[in-house]
Write a structure and sequence with these properties.
By secondary structure, this protein is an all-alpha fold. 79% of the residues lie in helices and 0% in strands.
């Protein structure tokens, strides 16, 4: 039983789902206005997690043949046959998304529901189906899925968006490429063999490292801006601390474009986002 649960967690990419849920809650927390009822916050959290899970499962359903070509993914349940890629799974995936969108629309508002849908649609269809095997810009556009979670959280408080959550959504948009490209740097050979045009599989390593650094620099600069639109010194401290560390490891990657340096940069991206989100919550609760 525990094995099945573990595989469902893997198929639905729930670790990513929880991260997206936290970005949505951060958008909610920093939006000016009256805090919604607790049950609405829990319901939105569930809806974001469920919609993200549907997109993650759809991604693995669609990419099962591609995943079989890569060492990192060839043991996923849809590849091994542990889960059968049939109409049953597609129905479950569609139902998960439908429940999350309808529930948000009925209990909160249609604007928040639209963002919940767009987040899943961007990752599941725009990124997975349309872009991933066509262009190295796939994850740049696919990164909008996390941005929609932020906007969805903001819409729970106020459907007419304010500056702070819009800027945080842009931060998430800029964070995704250097985060994922650092991981793709480690598995560049896998992507080359599978024919997937991820940045490190398309460009030479030094060029890819410089592009990652440029995106990280843009991310750090934009991450400071919410301080000037309502957030306080706790947020600024978190944004600068995590951002400068991520920038330092990205510069190290330019200096030494190796797999080990890319791993460090990937971990730094996770640290930067975690610190940024924690700073959002602490800032609005303590100041």
């Amino acid at each position: 039983m525990s094995g099945v649960i573990s595989e469902i967690v893997s198929v639905c990419k729930l670790r990513i789902g929880f991260a997206i849920m936290l970005t949505g809650l951060a958008g909610l927390a920093i939006t000016p206005g009256s805090m919604p009822e607790t049950w609405k916050i829990f319901l939105f959290s569930f809806a974001i997690l469920l919609s993200s899970a549907s997109a993650g499962a759809f991604n693995q359903f669609i990419e099962r043949e591609l995943d079989a070509k890569m060492k990192r993914t060839r043991n996923r349940p849809f590849v091994t046959g542990r889960f059968q890629a049939d109409k049953y799974w597609l129905s479950v995936i569609g139902l998960m998304l439908l429940i999350s969108v309808i529930t948000t629309s009925m209990a909160i508002n249609t604007v928040a529901a639209l963002y919940v849908f767009l987040g899943a649609f961007t990752y599941g269809v725009v990124y997975t189906v349309w872009l991933k095997q066509r262009t190295w810009l796939n994850i740049v556009i696919g990164g909008l899925s996390g941005s929609f979670a932020v906007l969805g959280g903001a819409a729970v408080v106020d459907p007419s968006l304010s500056a702070a959550p819009i800027l945080l959504a842009i931060v998430l948009f800029l964070w995704t490429p250097p985060h994922f490209w650092s991981l793709a740097f480690v598995f560049a050979n896998d992507y080359k063999q599978a024919g997937v045009p991820m940045l490190p599989a398309v460009f030479e390593k030094p060029v890819a490292a410089k592009i990652i650094f440029a995106h990280t620099l843009a991310l750090v600069l934009v991450s400071i801006l919410p301080y000037f639109y309502g957030l306080g010194w706790i947020y600024l401290l978190g944004a600068l601390s995590g951002g400068l560390y991520f920038l330092k490891t990205s510069f190290d990657l330019v200096q030494q474009p190796s797999i080990e340096t890319a791993r460090k940069n990937f971990r730094a991206s996770l640290f930067q986002l975690s610190l940024l989100l924690c700073s959002c919550f602490l800032d609005v609760s303590l100041i």
